[in-house]
From TrEMBL:
<dbReference type="InterPro" id="IPR039421">
    <property type="entry name" value="Type_1_exporter"/>
</dbReference>
<keyword id="KW-0547">Nucleotide-binding</keyword>
<feature type="transmembrane region" description="Helical">
    <location>
        <begin position="130"/>
        <end position="148"/>
    </location>
</feature>
<dbReference type="Pfam" id="PF00664">
    <property type="entry name" value="ABC_membrane"/>
</dbReference>
<protein>
    <submittedName>
        <fullName>ABC transporter ATP-binding protein</fullName>
    </submittedName>
</protein>
<feature type="transmembrane region" description="Helical">
    <location>
        <begin position="12"/>
        <end position="31"/>
    </location>
</feature>
<dbReference type="InterPro" id="IPR011527">
    <property type="entry name" value="ABC1_TM_dom"/>
</dbReference>
<feature type="transmembrane region" description="Helical">
    <location>
        <begin position="271"/>
        <end position="295"/>
    </location>
</feature>
<feature type="transmembrane region" description="Helical">
    <location>
        <begin position="234"/>
        <end position="259"/>
    </location>
</feature>
<dbReference type="Pfam" id="PF00005">
    <property type="entry name" value="ABC_tran"/>
</dbReference>
<dbReference type="GO" id="GO:0005524">
    <property type="term" value="F:ATP binding"/>
</dbReference>
<dbReference type="InterPro" id="IPR003593">
    <property type="entry name" value="AAA+_ATPase"/>
</dbReference>
<feature type="transmembrane region" description="Helical">
    <location>
        <begin position="154"/>
        <end position="176"/>
    </location>
</feature>
<feature type="domain" description="ABC transporter">
    <location>
        <begin position="332"/>
        <end position="569"/>
    </location>
</feature>
<keyword id="KW-1133">Transmembrane helix</keyword>
<keyword id="KW-0067">ATP-binding</keyword>
<keyword id="KW-0812">Transmembrane</keyword>
Length: 577
């Protein structure tokens, strides 16, 4: 908990909170003594001017206590809010820098709970620490000493009530702590099922699994609710018991106090003050116990957040990362590359070897699961290799700063993802200073100009979450345009043309070939159709992670069996050139 707060809170604010809380408690501790003074020396003797004098002092201490309390609350809540803000930013930054392997280690839903719910738990306890944790010990010690000063004998009452209270709080902690700790994992479970239900709603309906999913969610929901009810019942039970102990203490003090007053061993005012101190002692003891109940839950949350911070990226960045020379002739080379997914039994790619240079198009074709997407995901270093090297412009990509490498590669993923906002913002994603002319040029090549122009808002058109207000083909074309705006050394299209009809596919590729910038870059295309790959300078045929063919369309169709098979299957489907 302290580790997670380190460097994320202002120490000045923490010191300020401690100072103001100390002032508040000292002012509060003075009030009972002044009350006893006013009763003993003012009320009992009928000395009005003395009552006024001490009364004004009491008002002064009360005002001081109020002002100090306000300052403490302000500092405590600002500090806890800032701590939350910093934690959320740091988690987000860390997660955004995860390599793809790390994403597999902590579920997305759990990451969301950690950024929201867990951070809130820590914020709540931070406020408690900056208020109750400071207030309680000072008040406990101060009130005990002052009560002892008022009457030694009466303090013996605490020898019974405090151990009783401690015993009860101990039992409470034992039962409440595991329930509090379980709350976070139960929240994770609810979020996971809810998220899956939302993203997979169409599949769920199509497979008529609505009831199954509803039951699954209900299960998690009931489990969470029962746990929350149990915790709250326990806390609710605690209050009457604590009130009973406090009232019992009060009664005992009054009984023994009356006896002492009867024997003239104590003044009335001192008894009143003693009772107030007794309440302050018991209250601070309870406050400490409450904080002790909440700390383990926040501790569990802190651990979950720390886990995210502790995840070491498997991707090592070179000590002196190299840069690429802008506007130079480019090259891309795979040098006997193999790759195996973490935990997988066999390699997804084995001994892939090819190279390409500026102006060339490399096409990758192969059956489902043959390793096409894996191969292109290795270019922007989403994963690190098992064996071999990938070089861009002759430099091993592990020697490049990751941001420089990602600048050099423009990727159109298999599943086109657009972000909420205007279309212009989406288009500028890879080049924030892109002009409207550049965007229209890219839309032109991507065959997306027509439908954007038809919309009255044009580039200001609103993009809904995930690009939901566009068809699959339109989304794909916009994703292509976005990649083109970025202007990189290498363009990678992961099955990006499959959502397009044959004519649009052919027009788009022809427009790509004519673009000046593309002519100086390397284009890598993953495709299913022979027609899409036929005019590439180099075609790679993948089968079961192996490179079983490498050459031009003419070479491969004469010599390569797998390629011939693909052609045959597509002729049968009437889908070939
Ligand atoms: N994250 C992953 N973890 C483990 N194995 C994976 C992962 N992603 C893919 N694979 C495996 O790697 C192999 C290659 O998958 P890849 O996605 O590269 O195939 P693909 O040729 O692009 O297929 P498709 O045409 O269906 O997209 C498959 O056997 C797949 O099961």
């Amino acid at each position: 908990m302290l580790k997670i707060a380190k460097g994320r809170v202002s120490y000045l604010a923490v010191i300020g909170a401690i100072i103001f809380m100390t002032i508040q408690v000292i002012a509060n501790l003075n009030l009972p003594s002044l009350t006893s003074d006013i009763v003993n020396n003012g009320v009992a003797t009928g000395n009005i001017s003395y009552i006024w004098k001490v009364g004004m002092k009491m008002v002064g201490f009360s005002l001081l206590s109020i002002v100090a309390a306000i300052c403490n609350v302000l500092l405590a809540s600002t500090t806890s809010q800032k701590l939350g803000q910093n934690l959320r930013s740091d988690i987000y930054r860390k997660v955004m820098n995860f390599s793809t392997d790390e994403y597999d280690q902590i579920e997305t839903s759990s990451l969301i709970t950690r950024t929201t719910n867990d951070v809130v738990q820590i914020q709540n306890v931070a406020i408690m620490m900056l208020r109750m944790m400071i207030m309680a010990p000072i008040m406990l010690i101060g009130a005990s000493l002052l009560a002892y000063g008022k009457n030694h004998t009466l303090t013996l009452v605490f020898l019974v009530s405090l151990p009783l209270l401690a015993l009860f709080m101990g039992i409470m902690l034992k039962f409440a702590m595991p329930m509090f700790q379980a709350m976070q994992t139960k929240t994770d479970r609810i979020n996971r099922i809810f998220r899956e239900g939302l993203t997979g709603v169409r599949v769920i309906r199509a497979f008529r699994q609505d009831q199954f999913e509803q039951d699954r969610f209900e299960d998690a929901n009931v489990d969470y609710t029962n746990n929350a009810i149990n915790v709250n019942t326990l806390l609710a039970l605690a209050f009457p018991v604590m009130t009973l102990i406090m009232s019992g203490t009060n009664v005992a003090i009054i009984l023994f106090g009356a006896h002492l007053i009867g024997n003239q061993a104590m003044q009335v005012g001192n008894l009143i003050a003693f009772m107030t101190y007794a309440m302050q002692i018991l209250m601070s003891f309870m406050m400490l116990s409450m904080v002790l109940i909440f700390i383990p839950r926040a501790q569990a949350s802190a651990k979950r957040i720390q886990q995210v911070f502790d995840l070491q990226s498997t991707m090592k960045v070179a000590d002196n990362p190299k840069a690429l020379v802008a506007d130079a002739d480019h090259s891309l080379a795979f040098d006997h590359v193999s790759y195996r997914y973490v935990g997988a039994e066999k390699s997804a790619l084995t001994d892939i070897d090819f190279s390409a240079k500026s102006g060339q198009t490399v096409a990758i074709i192969g059956g489902t699961g043959s390793g096409k997407s894996t191969l292109i995901n290795l270019i922007p270093r989403f994963y690190d290799l098992e064996k071999g090297q990938i070089k861009i412009d002759g430099v091993d990509i592990t020697q490049l700063a990751p941001e420089k490498l990602r600048d050099a590669v423009s990727l159109v993923p298999q599943k086109a993802t657009l972000f909420t906002g205007s279309l212009r913002e989406n288009m500028k994603y890879g080049k924030p200073d892109a002009t409207d002319d550049e965007i229209w040029h890219a839309l032109d090549i991507a065959r997306a100009r027509d439908f954007v122009e038809e919309d009255p808002d044009g580039l200001d058109m609103y993009v809904e979450q995930g690009g939901g207000n566009f068809s699959g083909g339109q989304r794909q074309r916009l994703a292509i345009a976005r990649a083109l705006v970025k202007q990189s050394a290498i363009y990678v299209f992961d099955d990006s043309f499959s959502a397009l009809d044959f004519k649009t596919d052919a027009d788009l590729r022809a427009a790509l070939r004519q673009d000046k910038h593309i002519q100086q870059s390397i284009t890598v295309i993953v495709a299913q159709r022979i027609a899409t790959v036929a005019d590439a300078d180099l075609i790679l045929v993948l089968d079961n992670g192996q490179l079983v063919g490498k050459g031009t369309h003419d070479e491969l169709r004469k010599t390569n069996e797998v390629y011939q098979e693909i052609i045959k299957s597509q002729i049968r489907e009437g889908d070939a050139e």
